[in-house]
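Objective 1.3, modelling of assemblies. Example input:
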Amino acid sequence: MSLEKISALLDELLKSKDIYACMVAKRGMEGVIPDSSKFNPKVMGIWDALQKTIDNEFITIKEFSDYGLGEVTFRLQEFEVLLYVLPRSDTALIAITPSLANKGLVEVTMENARRKLIEIIQ
Amino acid sequence: MKRVKTGVLGLDELVEGGIPEGMIIAVAGGPGTGKSIFCTQFLWQGLKDGEKVLYVTFDGEEIASSLKEQAKQFGMDLSNKNCRIISFSAEEADEVLAKIKELVKKEKYSRLILDSISMLNTYQGTPRIVAVRPADFETAEILRKKTRLNMSEVREIGPTTLVIVEDYEGSPTSDKVAEFAADGVIKLGINDAIGTRSMRLIKMRETKHPLKPLNIEIRANGIELLPTK
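Predicted structure (tokens):
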């Protein structure tokens, strides 16, 4: 079942020390979100702001994913938020990382996870 | 406080045993998110508990039989003398709430479904909107006022009520007013890109409840909450 596989994929991502929180969701946070107890407590302090800013990015994603929009990244306080869009959809794999994380490593981890996610949902 | 079981597997434990009795809960979501199934489960739970239940719709006469059919698919039998499904026409919309109030008083229904507040708003005429500011003649403003009036009338009816709200991207703000006016809001969602469904408890008066989206599935017996790991 895709939900279980997606949950397992997210749990795997959370093992990476630079991924504080992650989820697969669309606007309104509809999707698969691991239990917040699994997230790094540092992000919980600004969770509300994170949710609102992420939600706002989904307006752009919905509008432009058909044109091939692949990634959206933004910085909020000391965090970096990465949204890896699932091709031609309104949904993205989202990770919240510290802004000083090893960016190259995080990007490779995220791209691999996106590919696995596409396999799961296909 | 007495609580009313929803009949949705896994939900009651998250809301201190059920919905507070007599409250109005908005069940919001776009098409295909499971609003009708959720409400049917609520009715079925009432019937199992020996209560009298009422489903009011504006979707036409045929909805009664299709609702019963759908319920049967999930193992729920709405062909019970304690269950009544009434369909009102658009022309009757202005008197609907008064009629329901009378019916509930007479027949002592303890659970009510109003399907949907969005349809009721659309069908009602506007003569009882008495405000005369120019802005009041704008449709959206009138709709919002109607929603507020309707919700306060629903509150007077009495039983624990689920009000279905059509909530989707681009839905009129009047529908959001229903969510503000309700005592609780349960939002159902669907993510078709990854094939998952979710439920969010946006608010529930006098109840501690989780805020994060909960994953749900529609299974053989209706909506079930999936355990969080």
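The two ends of chain A are 12 Å apart (CA to CA).
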